[in-house]
Write a sequence for this structure.
DNA sequence: TAGTGGTCTAGACCACGAA
DNA sequence: TCGTGGTCTAGACCACTAA
């Protein structure tokens, strides 16, 4: 939470950051990194002696780690390494998702060009119909098998030189390099039957079941990607974790 | 965070809780409840004077509200009501989901009985095959139209007298009454074609696209519900918010 | 009984923002 | 310049846990 320097600074033997509570916090973080859940962290008074700071300062440091979910306090007993908290489904790209499933993602660009946004894409991207958008259509494979057809639409204004710079392997990596890695997304998911064209690319019969996923992906408050993905239902199941992180 | 009483207590004119920082916190919470985002909260020193407590105590109170996402501190300016944070998709029951969509949920029980858990259900519920489970199959309607067939499996041990007490309108409400409202779920979602039997209930042709959702719902660390739902794809689209809450 | 975390005091100086 | 939040001190008493 601290955003600028505090008051008295005198340099402490342990650690190397600027603020005292940050020093203590990072010292403890490093100390318990990799520890098994339930193992004891240093006591507050121990850290007071070690760092020569007030107990409130130590508590400020520990508070942050508790809020973070790294530590857990048990009154009368001590402070312990917490069991990692469950996290809701993160925003993953196809490549990241497949790698998490232990498969090798590949991608063939079917189309990559500048277009004028239609009304639907424009609304989703927060643009005006006719504005320039990047349309990128790819066939996605996993372990050499067709898995998905993905149409991504990107705001050209936010991504100058994107088409010229050669298409990246991972869209989300490229967006990350530009400081626009999506951290939030709104997905709509439903079921349908493969069209003739989809069937050809996905190597299934027309009318085979497919999972359709429409996404609006946000970085900060801006929509950076709108996409429609069509998955082979016989090869792909969406995995979701729902609920609060606490 | 506090789990028991603190030290000196002397009663303050404002508020009615036990701990000072809790008094301050709840006072501020009530004060800003319903305020528009961006409006100013009382300054820390203001609250110090109002409650006659140390500033650290006020900061402890405000810290909690900041972590909670209710307030936002801007150094040099003050403390303000924060814009509500985005929350990932919560765990909703069919009824709750439909009501959020502005539709009227209804439900017809097709089957409700005690069964011996098969291997799949047993594993998902954390039981041994052959253990007693409650199997509850319902046809779900929204605005009087067939929407979904749901098979729910419940751990009979956790829900004594469940079948005898008459089936509840909302499963999650009933679980909530027993202190076992699911707050976490793992869903698997894919697409398929309706079977003959499903087609009859859902009033579609056999082979129509359906969305299948398998759920493991948790209350605390215990699995309280395992379910398989089959939705008419022409009437139902899954809506998801992905990403971190911060 | 000793050690732990929970709460609280009454001050202090600092960096930043707005007037 | 004044008010804000950010940081920090050096103590204190309490309730609880475990030895």
């Amino acid at each position: 939470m601290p955003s600028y320097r505090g008051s008295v600074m005198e340099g402490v033997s342990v650690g190397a950051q600027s603020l005292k509570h940050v020093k203590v916090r990072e010292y403890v973080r490093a100390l318990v990194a990799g520890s098994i859940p339930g193992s004891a962290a240093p006591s507050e008074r121990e850290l007071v002696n070690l760092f020569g700071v007030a107990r409130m300062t130590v508590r400020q440091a520990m508070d942050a780690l508790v809020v973070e979910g790294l530590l857990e306090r048990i009154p009368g007993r001590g402070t312990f390494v917490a069991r990692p908290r469950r996290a809701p489904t993160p925003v993953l790209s196809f490549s990241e998702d497949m790698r998490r499933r232990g498969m090798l993602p590949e991608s063939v660009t079917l189309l990559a060009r500048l277009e004028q946004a239609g009304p639907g894409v424009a609304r989703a991207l927060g643009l005006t119909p006719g504005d320039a958008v990047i349309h990128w259509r790819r066939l996605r494979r996993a372990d050499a098998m067709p898995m998905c057809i993905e149409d991504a639409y990107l705001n050209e204004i936010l991504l100058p030189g994107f088409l010229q710079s050669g298409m990246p392997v991972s869209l989300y990596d490229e967006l990350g390099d530009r400081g626009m890695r999506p951290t939030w997304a709104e997905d709509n998911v439903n079921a349908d039957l493969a069209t003739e064209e989809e069937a050809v690319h996905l190597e299934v019969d027309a009318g085979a079941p497919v999972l359709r996923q429409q996404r609006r992906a946000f970085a900060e408050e801006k929509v950076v990607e709108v996409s429609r993905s069509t998955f082979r239902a016989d090869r792909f199941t969406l995995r979701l974790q729902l609920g609060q992180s606490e």
